[in-house]
Design goal:
The structure holds 2 protein chains of 2 kinds.
Chain A lengths: L3 E10 L4 E10 L2 E5 L10 E4 L4 E4 L1 E3 L15 H10 L2 E6 L10 H14 L3 E4 L1 E2 L12 H7 L4 E2 L8 H13 L4 E3 L12 E2 L2 H6 L3 E2 L2 H13 L6 E4 L5 H12 L3 E7 L26 H12 L5 E3 L27 H7 L7 H6 L3 H7 L14 E11 L18 E11 L2 E5 L1
Parallel strand pairs in A: 1-4, 1-5, 6-7, 7-8, 9-10, 10-11, 11-14, 12-13, 14-15, 15-16
Antiparallel strand pairs in A: 1-2, 2-3, 5-17, 17-18, 18-19
Chain B lengths: L38 H19 L11 E6 L5 H12 L3 E6 L2 H4 L5 H10 L4 E6 L4 H8 L5 E7 L5 H15 L7 E5 L6 H12 L4 E5 L15 E3 L2 H5 L4 E4 L5 H4 L6 H8 L3 H4 L7 E3 L12 H4 L6 H20 L6 H7 L1
Parallel strand pairs in B: 1-2, 1-3, 3-4, 5-6, 5-8, 6-7, 8-9
Helix pairs in contact in B: 1-6, 1-13, 1-14, 2-13, 6-7, 6-13
Classes of the chains: A alpha/beta, B alpha/beta.
Chain lengths: 424, 343
């Protein structure tokens, strides 16, 4: 166990409303002190951090690691290493693995592999319904016991609204948050682009707004006058934000996140059929992108996640509609979030959206810095100008539209449980 | 030049090749979509087609593409389009290979790129591609070796540029080269039509006075007016004072997809009859990309009537495809006469 002194860093901890130049002392994997040295502290390593920011380790609400089931795309070891290199110390895996995370054995398998990798901490969501088939409730209590941070049916439909209502009630009985990726299977059938001028011009099967907003409205009505906790993930439409804002105003316990790429890209980006921009929900209009940014700024969208979906090269080498959707994105979560600060979002809000806010949604004591806490943190050189290159990605999936983008601010060191897992 | 079957690199996916259709001199290299091509290129195609129209009538065969191998690469069933491409290639003295690859064959594990690499290894010069996915022709043009030319013979709902150019050729033959005073109505299933999209681009590039699309809301794509068309939901209003009426084929599947109630109701509301055609200009011409559904989108009296130019569209199709093939593959084949005509 090394004792580490991080000397004179700018500590930014939005949850505790801290933003100050100070020292941090790490001992026995934990934060031993902030400010003055604890008694008998002898540093094995001292990091001069005069020009660096120190933030809580990043918490990513949705990252697919592709294991078990799709190991030809990526695996837990490669993806947690990539995530850690980008400052992510905790991430959450959706249940659509193969086998589906609908029984404790799968949860244990993922935890075991993650532990072996000794990189980012990995949490899971359990399936809302057995096999994600939308027919029978999963054994949610057992999944929670095994460590699942919530339950979700991903983008798979629960066609029967009675089953959906009962799934909410059962989850609520056990104080489990339900994570929703709102999508109407019929309205989005075979769709690969936002319904609008670009999809019409390119002849791509469109996905209308209603594919997202209609199921959100339905769910908000199903949970009206209950204390069920629902988190809506990966919003893409301006109208969705209005619905969530109204629901919160009326007292519902709902929260929302957005994928980082939705805050920087629009439907215009698919104009040349570049499959790297093929994502679900689809990239929408400029107006929607601006509404999503406002949603982050005013807190209706409390979290930004990577929505990491690494692919093998062949998955993107086909005509646009035939390619697999998704971006390999753990390594661009922080840079894309920091880029929002240039658009007027306060730095502390931007950092909160990838640290304490997602931690709260997952019900984890993480994403902030306090004495006695496990030392998961990340040092950033805020002035470093750099170019993101797919050739330098650590993720197994090199599918990114951001290769060649210039960023300011880069992770220089990630510490997980007091150990440096990445440094530059 | 034998192409090595190299694996594509990561960077090949991320390229935004907007002007992939033109070479460094601005000459046509691939023919994938009308969008992005200038009036000069479209007129060059039409003028070249004009010179080949004579070839079709008398000589029938010219040696422009002797020694070249053209592959008809059809992933979607088609007899007529493939046949006209084949005839066009043969009249230019090229060797033609017809590949009909059903979707099931490609799903056996061989990817589209594997298929392309194999055909490239046979030292071919041009791929004429039809595929059910929008963007396929662009994808192929992005990934073939540099000496190979790609012609789009229809990709999903996106584009069918040679069809649009033969339609422009037909309009020009009937109405003259100045499209400025013309009102053109495209009627029917705009939503699923690659033909309509290419026609709209071509008509607007050639500065057509007004382009309209006509159909029920279920068959008109959202924000289509951004392409430069006026939208009409009523046939009579849509074809009023039109110089050119283009009818689109209605696929039977549209009934099962709940886009329309029945063929009967569609014909009642949008079927073109002699009587309804009265509101168009007296000298209006009627076009159809074929194959025709008689009694669904068009009445036999109109299809076979004096204003129909449907069969000449088919004839001109060969000349236009010869023009595009020779322009993309034959290098500088345009004669002095053509250059004068286009200037």
């Amino acid at each position: 166990m090394k004792n580490i002194l991080i000397k004179n860093a700018r500590l930014i901890d939005p949850q505790n409303k801290q933003d100050l130049q100070t020292n941090i002392y790490i001992s026995q994997n934990r934060i031993a002190a902030i400010g003055d040295a604890p008694a008998d502290f002898i540093a094995d390593e001292t990091i001069a951090a005069d020009k660096l920011w120190l933030i809580p380790g990043i918490v990513d609400l949705s990252a697919r690691l592709r294991e078990p089931g799709l190991e030809h795309k990526a695996n837990i070891e490669t993806e947690t290493r990539a995530a850690a290199s980008a400052g992510i110390t905790t991430l959450c895996v959706p249940p659509d693995t193969d086998p589906v995370i609908d029984e404790p054995a799968v949860v244990e398998l993922i935890h075991r592999k993650a532990k072996l990798a000794q990189q980012s901490h990995v949490y899971t969501l359990g399936a809302l319904t057995a096999g994600l088939k939308g027919e029978h409730l999963s054994e949610m209590a057992a999944l929670k016991e095994a460590g699942c941070a919530g339950v979700s049916n991903c983008r798979k439909p629960v066609r029967n609204s009675l089953i959906l209502r009962r799934a909410f009630e059962y989850a609520s009985t056990h104080n489990i948050t339900v994570f929703i990726n709102a999508t109407d299977e019929h309205l989005s059938k075979e769709g690969c682009a936002h319904e609008g001028a670009i999809a019409s011009r390119l002849g791509l099967t469109p996905i209308p707004y209603a594919a997202e907003t209609a199921p959100i409205a339905q769910i908000l009505e199903l949970i009206r006058d209950t204390d069920i906790r629902v988190h809506f993930g990966r919003l893409s439409c301006a109208r969705s934000i209005e619905l969530i804002a109204e629901a919160r105003k009326s007292g519902l316990k709902v929260s929302a996140d957005v994928a980082a790429h939705q805050l920087h890209l629009t439907e215009m980006d698919i104009s040349s059929f570049n499959s790297q921009y093929h994502v679900l929900p689809p990239l929408r209009s400029q107006r929607d992108m601006e509404a999503l940014r406002r949603g982050v700024a005013d807190g209706v969208i409390s979290s930004i996640c990577s929505d990491h979906q690494p692919h093998e090269i062949d998955a993107k080498l086909a005509p646009f509609p035939a390619t697999e959707p998704g971006i390999s994105s753990v390594e661009t979560l922080l840079p894309l979030t920091l880029k929002l600060v240039e658009t007027g979002i306060p730095l502390s809000s931007a950092i909160a959206s990838i640290t304490c806010n997602p931690a709260k949604i997952l019900g984890l004591d993480a994403g902030h810095l306090a004495i006695g806490q496990i030392a998961n943190l990340c040092l950033i050189d805020p002035d470093k100008e750099w170019q993101f290159k797919k050739s330098e990605m650590l993720s197994h999936g090199k599918n990114t539209p951001f290769s060649g983008w210039n960023f300011t601010g880069k992770v220089v060191r990630t510490i997980i449980e007091g150990n440096t897992v990445y440094s530059e | 030049m034998v192409n090595k079957a190299t694996r594509p690199t990561d960077d090949m996916i991320g390229q935004d090749l907007w002007n992939i259709q033109l070479d460094e001199q601005g000459q046509l290299k691939h023919f994938l979509t009308i969008e992005g091509l200038g009036t000069n290129i479209l007129n060059q195609i039409l003028d070249t087609a004009e010179s080949f129209a004579g070839v079709n009538e008398s000589v029938k065969k010219v040696p422009l593409l002797r020694g070249k191998t053209i592959v008809n690469l059809f992933f979607e069933a088609s007899t007529r389009t493939r046949t006209t491409f084949e005839l066009a290639a043969k009249r230019l003295s090229a060797d033609v290979l017809n590949m009909n690859i059903s979707a099931s064959a490609t799903s056996k594990g061989e990817t589209l790129l594997d298929t392309l690499r194999n055909l490239e290894a046979m030292q071919t010069d041009m791929f004429i591609v039809r595929h059910a996915d929008s963007g396929t022709a662009h994808f192929i043009a992005n990934h073939v070796s540099p000496h190979i030319r790609v012609l789009n013979a229809g990709d999903g709902r996106h584009a069918h540029p040679t069809q649009a150019m033969l339609d422009m050729f037909t309009i020009r033959r009937n109405k003259g080269a100045d499209f400025g005073g013309l009102r053109v109505a495209i009627v029917g299933d705009i939503m699923h039509s690659r033909v309509a999209r290419s026609q709209i681009h071509a008509l607007n590039t050639l500065n057509t006075g007004e382009v309209r699309v006509v159909g029920p809301k279920t068959l008109i794509p959202k924000d289509i007016d951004a392409m430069g068309v006026n939208v009409h939901y009523n046939l009579q209003e849509g074809i009023k004072d039109a110089d050119v009426v283009i009818m689109l084929r209605l696929q039977k599947e549209r009934m099962t997809g709940a886009l329309l109630p029945s063929e009967q109701e569609y014909f009642q509301l949008y079927g073109l009859t002699e009587e309804r055609l009265q509101v168009a200009k007296p000298d209006a011409i009627v076009m159809h990309p074929g194959p025709i559904n008689r009694g669904v989108e068009i009445d036999s009296n109109v299809a076979d009537g004096p204003r129909s130019v449907i069969l000449s569209q088919v004839t001109y199709g060969i000349a236009v495809r010869m023009a595009v093939m020779s322009l993309t593959l034959g290098g500088n084949v345009s004669t002095q006469k053509n250059q004068e005509a286009s200037s």
